[in-house]
Amino acid sequence: MALKPLALDQLVGAPLRALVLGDGVATRAAADYVSEVGFETTADRKTAVREVEFEYIHPVPDPANPGAVIETPTRVRVPLLTLFPVPNLRISEATITFAANVVDVKSARIKRPPAGLAHAGTTALAVPELSAVYAPAVAAAGQPAPTMSVTIKVVKEANSEGMARVLDLLSDSITSTPSRKPK
Amino acid sequence: MSSVRRRGRSDRAIALPDLVRSLSDAVSSARRVLDGAKAARPGLALDEVRFVVRFALAEVGSSGAATRAKARQVHVLVDAPSLSEIAPHLISEMEVRITRAGTTVTSQLAGLNLPE
């Protein structure tokens, strides 16, 4: 099947779109995991941390009898989320390499306001437009090499200073208060 | 009679600055894909896009050029149909790297003898 020629921006943009979608799927999977494994809805429709509760015998040194221990039944409650690693996969870096054959060069006229003069109406600009099709990176014997090869390097962007401070504020707002008075 | 006109090689020639600009425009346009996703969360950023483009010299300047600058412009052929008709030793390679800092262009010219 013959490949449909695409404008160059679509050719470059398509793998980037795939990366964004993949990164979003991974982020949602991590959020779903935290939500499903870490929390539950109680009978009275409140969100509660899902916990593992068990009892074991904790040996406590007997102060009245040095060297001896008192077997003390102890109840432990552990948030389930702390027992398993959260599958938090993110794309930290990606390098995409592909070849393409330019099949046509057109001069498209677009209307665009002059730079810095958005209020001054529009002017027609002749913008060269390359159409290309994806091609094998290595040409078959007897076939010409692809006319263009493209390598795109994408990196994970750090949080902006503003976002980092907002996240710090949100972290500081995490509080823990007794749910009922101790007996 | 069909209104479709067969385009000759000269119709497909592109001025070198226009070629670099079209590559740069394509990257700017593609970058908007990443910028759009950033609205939801910190995301991915384009670090570098590297194009290696094979080209052949089509013409230097044009007698009908309106300005002196345009008269000196090098026009090249980059499309596969045109390059397939040109002897391999006349085909050159150009590398364009578009990074966050800026754009660099390097080229290895083959059989390119510019008129003085």
Descriptive overview:
The complex is a heterodimer of chains A (183) and B (116). With 183 residues, chain A is an alpha+beta fold. Chain A has two helices and eight strands, in the order βαβββββββα. Chain A has one domain (6-38, 49-170). The N and C termini of chain A lie far apart (76 Å). With 116 residues, chain B is α+β, with helices and mostly antiparallel strands. Chain B has one domain. In chain B, 30% of the residues lie in helices and 33% in strands. Chain B has helices at 9-12, 16-38, 68-71, 80-83; strands at 14-15, 44-60, 74-77, 91-99, 103-108. A five-stranded antiparallel beta sheet of chain B has the order 1-3-2-4-5. In chain B, a hairpin with a 3-residue loop joins strand 4 (91-99) and strand 5 (103-108). Chain B starts with 8 loop residues before the first helix and ends in an 8-residue tail after the last strand. Residues 1-6 and 111-116 of chain B have low confidence and may be disordered. The interface between A and B is large, with 42 and 40 residues. Strand 8 (148-156) of chain A pairs antiparallel with strand 2 of chain B, so a sheet runs across the interface.
Largest sheet features of chain B: 5 strands, antiparallel
Helix/strand order of chain B: HEHEHEHEE
Mean pLDDT of chain B: 76
CA-CA gap between termini of chain A:
76 Å
Low-confidence stretches of chain A: none
Counting DSSP E segments of at least 2 residues, the number of strands of chain A comes to 8
Taken as a percent bin, the fraction of beta residues of chain A is: 35-45%
Order of helices and strands of chain A: EHEEEEEEEH
Largest interface, counted by CB within 8 Å of the partner chain's CB: A-B, 42 and 40 residues
Number of domains of chain B: 1
Query: Helical region count of chain A?
Result: 2
Cα gyration radius of chain B (Å): 18 Å
Number of strands of chain B: 5
Our count of helices of chain B gives 4
Oligomer: heterodimer
Distance between the termini of chain B: 44 Å
User: Which descriptor suits the 3D outline of chain B?
Assistant: elongated
Largest sheet of chain A: 4 strands, antiparallel
Radius of gyration of chain A: 30 Å
